[in-house]
Amino acid sequence: MRTAVYPGSFDPPTLGHLNIIRRAAAIFDELVVCVMRNGAKECCLFTCEERAELLRESTAGLSNVRVDTHTGLLTDYVRESGSPVVIRGLRAVTDFEYEFQMAAVNRKLNPEMETVFMFAGEEFAFLSSSAVRELARFKSSLRDFVPAPVERAVREKISALEAEQSR
Ligand code: PNS
Hints:
5 strands; alpha/beta; about 170 residues; binds 4'-phosphopantetheine; five-stranded parallel β-sheet
């Protein structure tokens, strides 16, 4: 059985992530989408468990997709999961340097790990979780950018944060 791991911070999951998930799930027998911490990002709108739940709702129709969370190193997760294949999406040249460095560091830590890159669907090449968070703060529609359950959750989270700030 060929399993692949698709790690990311998914804060929140976007239609671009879902595009990669669908395509990777069509290639591998099982795809484990793993919500992790990106130490370089200060965000997060959602907790790890909330992000995992949003991914579970958004991938409910994909029977070979499983969602997990991990707070440590990706290489440790890959070693424990027994699958050496990691999927990453590439949107533009600007992603390349960061991804190249991460793949190289990860391979140094775990030489058996193989990072497989998939190009984002052209219609999602501009899309990022940070753009979604920014749009949500300005009450813009998120319909073209995130799955419906995610749009609802983002709106609720932003409203809750605003209510908290105005107290
Ligand atoms: O969606 P992102 O934020 O680009 O995903 C990056 C992520 C979470 C996959 C990366 O930061 C990661 O692997 N974090 C786990 C900790 C780790 O292994 N760091 C070493 C990376 S060189």
